[in-house]
Amino acid sequence: MIEPEPPHLRKPPLTTAEKLARLGGIGLILLIAAGAFAYVNGSLDPQRLTPARVVDVFEHSNGVHPGFRRNHPKGICVAGYFDSNGAASALSSAQVFAAGRTPVIGRLALPTGNPYSPDSAAPIRSFAVQFTQPDGQQWRSGMNSMPVFPVGTVEAFVDLLKATAPDPKTGKPDPAKPPAFFAAHPEAQPFLAWVKTARPSASFVTETYNSVNAFVLVDAQGKRQAVRWSLVPAAKGDAPAPDAKDYLQQDLSDKLASGPQRWDLVLTLANPTDPTGDASKAWAGEHKTVNAGTLVVEGDSAQLDGACRDINYDPLVLPSGIEGSDDPLLAARSAAYAASYMRRTSEVGQLEKPPAQEKQP
Amino acid sequence: MSTPTSHFAPLARLLHWLMAVMVIAMLFIGAGMVASVSERHEWLLSLHKPLGIAILLLVIVRLIVRFCTVTPPLPADLPAWQALAAKLSHYLLYALMLAMPLIGWAMISAAGDPVMLSGSIRLPSIVAAHAETFAFLRGAHRYLAYLFFLTILAHLGAALFHGWIRRDEVLDSMLKGRSRGT
After folding, report:
1. Does the reported pTM lie above 0.90?
2. S-S: A316 plus which of A101, A221, A332, A334, CB 3.0-4.6 Å?
3. pLDDT tens digits, residue range B41-56?
């Protein structure tokens, strides 16, 4: 059988106009493809809220402190374990809830944006915890001592940050902006009512830390139950905070020197009418709770060389048996934490030098 | 096996077009994912990881198929620089198809995160947890993704140049089999 001639030898040559038209067609196809990519990655839309732009807002408000987390940068690493009593294993198939011990690396921190904030700068403390299950899956939870979040969406939260950001001219927030923000955001009322009564605690170990966001527990049969959880302290005390810049770290070391510190992990089961998708709303009324076990903290270490430093406490790092809820803040936290983590891990070399501010009394 | 051919083997063509769709989808998923703070971020991330591992497995199959089948030669009258560019860009595409999933996997490992392919399937870590290593791999994943996309655009542009301007057999060798006219 005779091979036919290659087709292009039989075709009449292209005129210059035809060639230009075809080149233009190819160029147009490539341009459309590149444009679609630029649209998807946000380059064509400077108004779109991206993870990087959320972190930019934090950096704008707080300044850049290289190597530190872009939010809650002042903290202490802690280590210990979770002693599960097995009570929550009926609700979730996660290994962490089977009776027994799960190792924990945690981080106690201040919710400000500056690693050198005075400990009384905010009446809130935070506790981030990483449980590592025997199967290698992890549960990470970033908890705060407030019962509800000020707002329900990342867009509103960014607006709140902007409303309370220092004015570059005066170095202070514009006094007119926060009232305007809160007037436009009535959902912040429960948080505002709580924060009015809140005082900076003298200790990390007497605080209750709340998941604030809702999650879903899934049992071995696939049955789903929405929950929020809290770490409820064994140590009680409401002593006023001392009149000093730094006291939480010393207090924690003193408390740990006298023995391990304990919190009960209490799951609050959502009633059918509870909002799971809005962290600014409390779950009012009677609720069934399950005490899943005890979180025991045995030791602490400075965050600059502690085991918690390189952990991104992304609330959506979850084991099989725990899932995120429909709360939009969860995806926003996960996405923004990843952007913060990307920035700070590229700056860890700059953490070696002790910053000048630390030498101040 | 050793007779010259004018078309890619059917399996090679199947893998090419299947992976073309997967890789392009992957690049758009990745770009959209890192630009989103909504639930879309989670949804795209849950597609990105298993799709990346699927691409890694397929590119290994594809490399074996590539070495075991005869590939059609480039036109004899192709200028030397274009032949060189064709050769190098194909090496680059194969290298990126192999490297990008591995870098993604290594990057999650270096962050100390469990490498979860789904809600319950976990792959082992392939790199020890280390912040600087993560930062390097994360940057590489990003910049190589842009290089990947640009290389694909160049590949597409060159393929159309062969098909519409030069009108040689290069584009047809991947578009169709030998059945027609032989």
Report:
1. yes
2. A334
3. 999 999 999 999 999 9
